[in-house]
Amino acid sequence: MNLILSRFKKIGPGYLFVMPAFIMLCFFYVYPFFKVLQLSLYEWDGISSNMIFVGLDNFRDIIFSNPPWWQSMWHAVYITLLALVFQNGLALILALMVDRGIKYGHIYRVIFFLPPVLSGIVVGLIWNWIFNGNYGLLNHWLSQMGLGNLSRSWLADPRTALTAVAVIHMWKGFGWAFIILLAGLQNIPRTLYEAARIDGANNWNTFKHVTVPLMTPVFVLVMVLTVLGTMQIYDIVVSTTGGGPGYHTEVPVSRILSRMLNSSQFGYTCAMGLVFGAVLVILSIAHMKMSRAIKHT
Amino acid sequence: MTIKKLLSLAIFAGLVFAGCANQSSKLQNGEVVVWHWIVDKADVFNALALEYKKETGVNVRFELYAPTPAYASKIIAAAQTMKFPDIYGILMEMKQFASLIKSGHVMDLTPYMEENNGAWRSTFYKSGLAMNTFQEDNQYQVKPGIYGVPIDLNNVQFIYNLELLKKAGWDRSRLPSTWDEFIALGGMLKKAGIPGLVSGWGEQWMIHCLADNFAWNIMGREKVLATIKGEVPYTDPSWKQVLGLFAQMRDSGLLSRGIVTMINKEAEQTFANERAAIAFNGSWCVNIYASMNPELRYAVAPPPRVNLERPMEIWGGATDLVVNDRSPVKEEAVNFLKWLTQYKQQCYLAKETHNIPSNSACASILEGPITQFARGMDNAVHPRFFPVEEFPLVTEAFDKGIQSIIIGEATPDEVAEKVQQIKMEEIKKAERFKALREKEAR
Lengths: 297, 442
Description:
The structure holds two protein chains of two kinds.
Chain A: H1 2-39, E1 42-43, E2 52-53, H2 57-65, H3 67-99, H4 105-112, H5 114-117, H6 120-131, H7 137-144, H8 161-186, H9 190-198, H10 203-231, H11 235-240, H12 252-261, H13 266-296
Chain B: H1 3-20, H2 24-28, E1 32-36, H3 42-56, E2 60-64, H4 68-81, E3 87-89, H5 94-102, H6 110-118, H7 126-130, E4 133-134, E5 145-146, E6 149-161, H8 162-168, H9 179-192, E7 197-198, H10 205-228, H11 237-252, H12 264-272, E8 278-282, H13 285-292, E9 298-301, E10 314-323, H14 330-340, H15 343-353, E11 356-357, H16 369-376, E12 380-381, H17 392-406, H18 412-441
Parallel strand pairs in B: 1-2, 1-3, 7-8, 10-12
Antiparallel strand pairs in B: 3-10, 4-5, 6-8, 6-9, 6-10, 6-11
């Protein structure tokens, strides 16, 4: 008994200190997760006390009978792929330039970080003005350059709408990647670059054999954040296309919200959220495994 | 533990419990709490609340929650936690409204409307009250009655820029009233290089609104209702004709570039800045155009008639308030709503907000374009009037289908087939849920 008491005295305070955080975690994360899981098995309008147990019907419908849902998933994947390549590529180039100490580097840092701090809705409205089919800036510039035949309503044309949304998203998001990559670059000891240069390495070899290996954990972090952030794109879609024309720019979050607010299918919406969460987890794990494999080679 | 620490702990606990306390203490003071989402009326509502306090001594507090999706979510959350105010605005589908009523969150106002030979009821525009009325044999199995009070009304019509129409060569003294005239105007605008129609068709409900107008005009309300009930398929020639009108609008050059993804705010800016000749918008636009371009000259007209043998009914709506049936001050709440919808208060609201008052006697004090909108209230209909409601997924497929027609991606026939296919799937699902519900009830 004394042993238990003395052991409790030894570790008890530790548990007590952790307890508030643990309770909050349970209250705000664990309980809602299980509640969502429970609701996903019901047909429920969110108001009525009458809930109908439908088992896995909602999941079956989402997976096998909901083409717009999977179309919206593909749209998010498409924007994510573009963001991974172009947004992060541009962020890396700019971070390398600033890291090399170009003139006014500190000003660029501020400028590049401006888009991410703007609200997605505001960014969407600004770009609406650029992409507008009737009096948009892009069409105006194209006409000035003698390329008036290329002008179109960029956000309403099914051939360009999704890519236009992706461009807006990348413009808004590259600042984050830039800051993280720059922080990573500035953590690389300068002596390694000097040693490489003494050994006769040119710029490309220095980048390939010094920068890339040391930056791999940062690349993985940036890519995982890009995948998670882009897959959950919503605000820009709402403020530019509303998911249209047709289903051409629908994304998973817009489908989930539309089901909840317009169809009042709460159970179904919870199931959609769980399926979407599962897809994100799978993508993140696959991505991390792929990154590890690349690192080992 | 020192006294200081104990005191801090007591204050912290006090704050926590104060935060968790319900609103009963406020209610005991006789205060009536109102939730609404109407940002532009906040000051006017507060002024009215002050006036009411002066007249009756009852304190009314308006709490504003915007934007509208956030408000809608708040109402649903309130239903789950049973934390409704005494009066609140309704911003939801009929099915959800019915659920609120059946769960005891909405008071039946019929006895108050009917007292003194229906004195209160008779002050309203019929269409305004109809939105809050559940008819006999409604599909939601709600007890027939009036459950809400309209505070102001609105309807959606075509708005024409008179200067641009003149520039395009439209020299007729009246606005297009038939489909052929409307299409002819499209040709004239196209020839003159003037962008035609702008509207928030990226928001779907506005595209649906016009499609409904045409459907009611072409086939009549009975056939539309029969379609919702599943007795007439969307592949019926009348529905194909409705969808075909959008293809005709596209081909005639009537539609402004990018209309399918246009949000209404953008459409309003474009029309106010005289960059488009026609807008399809609600009566709230009068206020918006006046603030954006006071010089704008425009006129209002209902959508052109396709079937000349039937009238053109338009979409009309209302800003509604309901009383919480569980409120401890529900009598005070009803009294406040009665006061708010009286002639004097309604005229004040109409004057300050440029909206159509719900009290029909105030129509005489209206001035300018809002009068043209107010005249439309006699022909205003809203799908919420109907005893049945279409499946949301079918409505979505129909509206998205129209967008596909406008961008030339699908034909009216293809859209009709697709919508009907979704309708059949939804009917099957509804039957399955009905069977499960019956099984659980047993």
